[in-house]
Amino acid sequence: MREIILIHATGEDRPGITSMLTGVLAACGVDILDIGQVVIHDHLTLGMLVALPDESQAAPVLKDLLFKAHELGITLKLTPIGPERYETWVSVQGRPRHIVTLLARRLEAEHISRITGALAGHGLNIDIINRLSGRVSLADPGEARPACVEFSVRGTATDWTAIRKEFMDISAEMGVDVALQEDNVFRRNRRLVAFDMDSTLIQVEVIDELAKRCGVGDQVSAITAGAMRGEYDFKESLRRRLSLLKGLDASVLEEVAQNLPLTEGAERLIANLKRLGFKIAIISGGFTYFGERLKQLLGIDYVYANKLEIKDGRLTGRVVGPIVDGARKAELLRRLAEREGIDLQQVAAVGDGANDLPMLGLAGLGIAFHAKPKVKAGARQSISTLGLDAILYLIGFRERETLG
Length: 404
Description:
By secondary structure, the protein is α/β, with parallel strands linked by helices.
């Protein structure tokens, strides 16, 4: 019967340690059943699960391995693994895995403690923890960068809704964002990201900005806020707001367009997505005039929004064609995925309002961005503490893989 040994090596890292340890094993025809290695602050932790050729050769191999570790100044722990325990380990492969992503302005021990405690409480085991964000200098911190840690977990929870609710509570209490995604092939192959525009790609609601210049700012803002909370039917709320803009000089559109404040991280996010071959779309209940301006500025591929009707140089208070509401947003997203020849699971959608929920629910990765509680509760993921470029972490990119 072949003997199975778990080898755990720790010590100061330097080139060649793994090569020399596995070289001892190679000389004796040892099979590697599993292997993992991590280095934290120049300190190595290496694990190998090995099968020795037969029991008679176990002692000499392990003796040589211990001697080599001594030469290298490495601490070695050897643990025999029984055949039943090994087969049990083999049998769990292929079971569902999930990725939990923690996003924060600064990473604290309490954040990790609360999240890992929640996972353990629901019977989920952590296999791997990775830091996706860059290293931070304490002597010269410079521009503050966000912190991101990714947990790969396995297990079958009885109530995923309860886990998401617990993560939402942690997020609200601690000022962090926690995302839970199934770890599947689609997560690593997103190809299209669709954004709402107002209060998502830009920091304002354009219709409110137009209303201020028309002298009806308070009236329109109140309707807008109610619509974003889901208190009004979007089509009806848009008609009511637009009617208040009737007669506004169309030259005001250019004035507003020249002063659109981009959301934190928008330029960095889109520049990196474009570099990596993603297609970018705006699917908005706002207006094409401003969407087209952002298309030119950011290199966006598609713009779907409402077209303002203008006659004799003034707004008529109506739009041309069907209103882009929540249902139409979802339909446009579906058509766009078909046009690009991709599965909806390869699509990410980002928005802040109740009218974005159908689109967020349809996409493989739906993200409520700085959204109202009702929208956050209805979306599978949310970002409330960081800028748009935090989405790069949710897609799985490390900071060293990105620009800017």
